[in-house]
Amino acid sequence: MNITTATNRFKWSLDEDRLNTLGKETGLCQRKRTLTPHRLMLALLDSFASGNVKTLADILRRFNALCGQQAQYKPFHKQLAKPGFPVFVRETLTQMLNELATQALQFTPDSPFARFTGIHIQDGTSFALKPTLAHVFPGRFGPQNPAAVELHVNLDLLCESPNQIALTPDTAAEIPQLPAPEECRGSLMLADRGYFSKPHMQAIDAAGGFFLIRGKTNADVLVERAYRPDGREIRAWRGTRLQDHIAQLPRYAFVDLDVRFDKHKPDFACRLVVHSRTGQKESLRFLFSNLSRDDFTASHINDAYRLRWQIELVFKEWKSHAGLHAFDTSNPHIAEGLIWASLCAAVVKRFWAHVTQHISRQPISTQKAAKCIPFVLGDILRAILFRPQKLLAAARAAIKYLANNARRAHPDRDRKTGRLKLGLECI
């Protein structure tokens, strides 16, 4: 990738004719006025990239400063209150996810994980909304937070970008948001306890995919084989229920088992690695997987599950540096549209972080880049609006700034104990 290619990709994702046409198709606007969909989208990106959006008035002030306009609050609010506003921003986000995703990591050829076409991490994050939205987005936490939403995200680890984002009320179940088993063919899916589902694991296995999912400690399964950390089999456990041995599990650093779900038909056999982190029953971690013991050791299983932490860092970035939070509005269209706008800004930040990594040839921290990009993104957006001939120079200056200020602090430590431990390397 070079600077010209990256700049053209970004410019195309925010092309004026495309966004204005999309705004017309989604019902956001029918005629070109001061507040065009294109200008609105650029103002939203500039606002949420700063992470300091609290009210619509903040976005309006950013819009007037960026576009050189004098729009008033009432018509601005009226435009965003339309049902087409969240649809427009969501479709723009879809285009960005498709067009701006850039592979940032890869496994070395000698890593056992290099055989997978992708590593997908599934998880969700929730946050409260204004209580007056409880009839649209009911929450789980009673009178304190009667309105809340949850974002269910499927993250591509190698691109560090979402494959899929679903917005639901906080009361919605998590398991239906899992990707279809056919989408997991040839790839590895990592998920936490909230997404544990025996039928779904069985379907992924039948579709030719792989899974590594944390289960609950009360899982009632039949033990077919059990191996100690030294590789010796615990023969006394053959043909017994795992729950009969819960008290004995903490004495081992880990136990590697072949288990079978036999209580409900059809039954299903898979692998279970139980780790005891502190030697206490409360610290047991049950990791279910269909990865072969010949190719993936128990340590591989443990370290691979730790990669799930990368999606937690994405959520932290969204909430801390992309302005994802509860907005002071009782209009559900505005509330949903601003959520999607926040995610658009987060996608833009990661795009420029990955572009900088490719061009500078040094590891870039996406968290540091998220903090740095607000200082240079405005120049890029103003060039798109008013001076297209200056866009390449603005992009070059932004990449130089990020390369100097957003480098990863401890790449050697990442390879020893961090995310690169399993053979991952930065591209």
What layout of secondary structure does this protein have?
Layout: H1 3-13, H2 16-25, H3 37-50, H4 56-67, H5 73-80, H6 84-100, E1 105-107, E2 119-128, E3 138-141, E4 145-156, E5 161-169, E6 188-191, H7 198-206, E7 210-215, E8 222-227, E9 254-261, E10 268-276, E11 284-289, H8 298-306, H9 309-321, H10 332-360, H11 366-372, H12 374-386, H13 391-405, H14 411-416, E12 424-426
Parallel strand pairs: 2-6, 6-7
Antiparallel strand pairs: 1-12, 2-4, 3-4, 4-5, 7-11, 8-9, 9-10, 10-11
Helix pairs in contact: 2-3, 2-6, 3-4, 3-10, 3-12, 6-10, 10-13, 12-13
Provide a compact summary of the structure.
By secondary structure, the chain is α+β, with helices and mostly antiparallel strands.
Task: Please describe what this structure looks like.
This protein has 427 residues and is α+β, with helices and mostly antiparallel strands. The chain has two domains: 3-102 and 341-413, no CATH class; 105-310, no CATH class. It has 14 helices and twelve strands. Strands 2, 3, 4, 5, 6, 7, 8, 9, 10 and 11 form a ten-stranded mixed beta sheet that branches. It has a two-stranded antiparallel ribbon with strand order 1-12. It is globular, with a radius of gyration of 24 Å.
